[in-house]
Design goal:
This protein has 356 residues and is an alpha+beta fold. The protein has ten helices and ten strands.
């Protein structure tokens, strides 16, 4: 349980609804049909998540003999929509012939390792929660999601989206929704929802950088690079370095993310634009990380992690609330005269979020 009154798992997908909405309206049924089916499936999963939140989700007991080690299980849904599917790889099993299974297994491990090695966190709940994932979900399913209990990956339609296990940051992003679920439990609407999405992008990117051994300057700061098919004019789903530039495609439209509050989007769609306005805190983190240099998961990531897990971040926090807490966290950990606090203050000022 959290200090905010308990865990409230939400249904979170990597591909924003506005992208699928655009695809679903395409005149080419080969493009529109997978998007429509994905939207319908996502709506059903979202409803199930609300019901599970009301009646309570089953709690998986951590393994008793594997402290500080991942406990992964990958299932094959067999292109059906029944979870979890057939078990195909357990913890310690050798890689098989299915590259999707192997990538999912490796991504679960990479996420566990970043949280354990960098922050001393034992799995996403801090108590050794087993990490389960199902691959080959549905027919041409254009998404990946965390449903409050496990990861689920579609294979994509092959025309717009490729296999959703390809980018490790997608896996890290979705599992970080689980970390948020067990810590600050940020409400999935408006600015708190955009913070929820941003935190997942931040740590998803850090997991990728940690896996590749990259410094902040070496990282591409893209979310979902490698996920878009060759015909798509774009590099990824989102860019933390330059929000609004990830794609500009006749079929998908243009990346709508703003980088500063001057471009903040007021909308009733997508839970108040949680996947759109997350570009603002995303860019703030990028600015902090690159100003400090070195490995971004060390100082910049530590500040963000301190805020997420510190107990002071309220469920309905606005950008300014989060920003003030990052300033306080930087001061608490690194001192008031250090470059860390200065970098945090400058970053939020640049994106137009007040910290005073």
């Amino acid at each position: 349980m959290t200090s905010h009154g308990g865990h409230g798992p939400v249904f979170c997908t990597i591909v924003p609804p506005h992208v699928l909405d655009k695809l679903a309206q395409h005149e080419d049924t080969a493009l529109a049909t997978p998007a429509r089916r994905t939207l319908e499936r996502d709506a059903l999963e979202r409803t199930r998540r609300r019901l599970t939140t009301v009646v309570g989700a089953p709690t998986a007991a951590p393994p008793q003999d594997a402290a500080d080690q991942p406990h992964r299980t990958v299932y094959d849904a067999g292109h059906k929509e029944t979870l979890p599917g057939r078990k195909v790889r357990g913890e310690g099993d050798q890689p098989g012939k299915d590259a999707t299974v192997n990538r999912a297994y490796a991504g679960l491990g990479a996420t566990f390792e970043l949280y354990q090695k960098a922050y001393g966190r034992d799995s996403i709940d801090g108590k050794g929660l087993p990490l389960d994932a199902s691959v080959h979900f549905g027919e041409n399913y254009d998404n990946a999601f965390w449903n409050g209990e496990q990861m689920v990956f579609g294979d994509g339609d092959g025309t717009i989206f490729l296999d959703f296990t390809i980018p490790v940051d997608v896996i890290g992003h979705e599992l970080t929704h689980g970390v948020t679920q067990y810590t600050a439990n940020l409400a999935y609407f408006g600015q708190s929802g955009a913070l929820n999405e941003s935190v997942s992008d931040v740590f998803g990117s850090l997991i990728k950088q940690y896996t590749l051994g990259q410094t902040a300057d070496q990282a591409d700061w893209l979310i979902g690079a490698g996920l878009l098919a060759p015909r798509v004019h774009g590099t990824a789903l989102r860019s933390m370095k330059a929000p609004g530039t990830a794609y500009d495609d006749p079929t998908l439209g243009k990346d709508p993310q703003p980088a500063t509050m001057a471009g903040y989007v007021h909308t009733s769609q997508d839970n108040g634009g949680v996947h759109i306005n997350s570009g603002i805190p995303n860019h703030a983190f990028y600015l902090v990380a690159t100003a400090l240099g070195g490995h971004a998961w060390e100082r910049a990531g530590q500040i963000w992690y301190d805020v997420l897990t510190g107990g002071e971040l309220q469920q309905d926090a606005a950008f300014a609330d989060f920003a003030k807490l990052t300033v306080a966290a930087a001061k608490s950990r690194y001192g008031a005269t250090g470059q860390e606090q200065e970098a945090v203050l400058k970053a939020w000022e640049e994106v137009g979020v007040p910290t005073a």
